[in-house]
Amino acid sequence: MNGAxxxxxxxxxxxxxxxxxxxxxxxxPLVAAMAAEPALKPVLSLFEGVCTGAADGYxxxxxxxxxxxxxxxxxxxxxxxxxxxxxxxxxxxxxxxxDHASWHVNYDPPLASDxxxxxxxxxxxxxxxxxxxxxxxxxxxALQAAWQPRGQIASLILPMDLQASEVAAGLNFSAxxxxxxxxATDKVEAVARSLRAGKRLVFIVGDDGLSASGxxxxxRLAGLPGVRLFAETFPRLSHRGGGLPDLDxxxxxxxxxxxxxxxxxxxxxxxxxxxxxxxxxxxxxxxxAELDRLLSLADVGDDVTGALVALADAxxxxxxxxxxxxxxxxxxxxxxxxQSVGRVLAAALPEDCIVSIEGGTCGYPFFTASANxxxxxxxxxxxxxxxxxxxxGFGAALAxxxxxxxxxQSDGSAQYTIQTLWSIAxxxxxxxxxxxxxxxxxILQNELRRFGVTEFGPQALSLTELDRPxxxxxxxxxxxxxxxxxxxSNAELQRALADAKASAGPCLIEMEL
Length: 513
Known about the structure:
Blueprint: H1 3-13, E1 18-22, H2 28-34, E2 41-44, H3 48-62, E3 66-71, H4 72-78, H5 80-88, E4 93-99, H6 115-120, E5 125-128, H7 135-146, E6 153-159, H8 160-164, H9 185-196, E7 201-205, H10 212-222, E8 227-231, E9 238-240, H11 254-261, E10 266-270, E11 294-298, H12 304-314, H13 338-348, E12 353-358, H14 360-369, E13 376-379, H15 389-399, E14 405-410, H16 411-414, H17 420-427, E15 431-437, H18 442-450, H19 458-464, H20 473-480, E16 484-487, H21 490-502, E17 507-512
Parallel strand pairs: 1-2, 1-3, 3-4, 4-6, 5-6, 7-8, 7-10, 10-11, 12-13, 12-14, 14-15, 15-17, 16-17
Antiparallel strand pairs: 9-13
Helix pairs in contact: 1-2, 1-7, 3-5, 3-15, 9-12, 10-12, 13-14, 13-21
């Protein structure tokens, strides 16, 4: 047995199901080792950002870490943007990064780089293996570091000579136990005291507080006087529909969020960090609420649901009452708008499906419409680095193979990791990619307006328009092996979604807006 085989056996014994890989020369021993271990399924992607985004989506749905395999520093660097998003989502991921042979790296070969520094930018735990005999233990340490109540990214750097070195056979590894979440009763009591004292409180809920049980407890709290609840702006995983309470997301733009939060005596953080504006704007505070107005019910990684239930019980909050179901469809003959896309998609969702959202054009209208849809789960872009939506949906589809996944995607951000289509086609997953094709970076045009630009000249348009040439989405999807169609009206979108749900494989729907 060599070091690579030892690592793969340790990963399989620990319960790792998938390795999202884009390997190179320094990972060849690991590629060979995976061929002999059927319990660990390798999934090839054409770009490392797809690997890391897929590992993020898998971890959010499965609740346990996947593994990525990338080639040296430059290969790992290609995946950093989606690891940034995963870090903000507290997703457990283990990266295995092949390095040059330890006797070769000191010659400064062309692909040599400071992998430790690159990995440290997005990882809470980084280690370079120094002994072939300890590679399996190193891998399990990485898994334990990643899979904790507050999940994080762990990166293990593996020199090629250690992968190929012979080690003693017969080493045993046991499956890792899932982390245990807890909550602090004193925090629950502090929030309860504030409410009993007549304080008006607004809650921002995240983490596992947006599970079905957490939302039901939130619905009970919403029935109390002086209480309002929001979901965090970009949840890593939010259950929606099926009668669950509608926790709208805290508005993105800071002046709107501040205006809402200022109506209350205190802001209660339930599984979210301190609320901070995404960007800094002159004359608008970066903090959405002053520190002396913040209360903590539960930290990220705590049992947020348990804390919400305990608070509702302590306050004798009324029982949860299910919301009505049913989404009103827009007129079929009318042209698509972001609002009508949201309603048509929400009405078409099958029970317990998954929706990955990236892009503001249709994302917010869909989230609003989805409150009365069938029960489903929503994944959003937690870190703001674009190129997440389709890879995250791909990983989610592998976490629950056979379940239907919808990727509601803006056209500009889709191009960052469009190679995911090839991996989805290769795995023949029931993923529906909906491209909101407005042929521009709408968010940048909105920011220009906020900056005071009222008329877009040729230079501004050249940096924000995507229509010269327009992307041929059907041809692009066909090239990657995914069937595609174009729709322009609400009725056409309804028919396309019905056809997609009747198919066992993937499809892409271009929505001309």
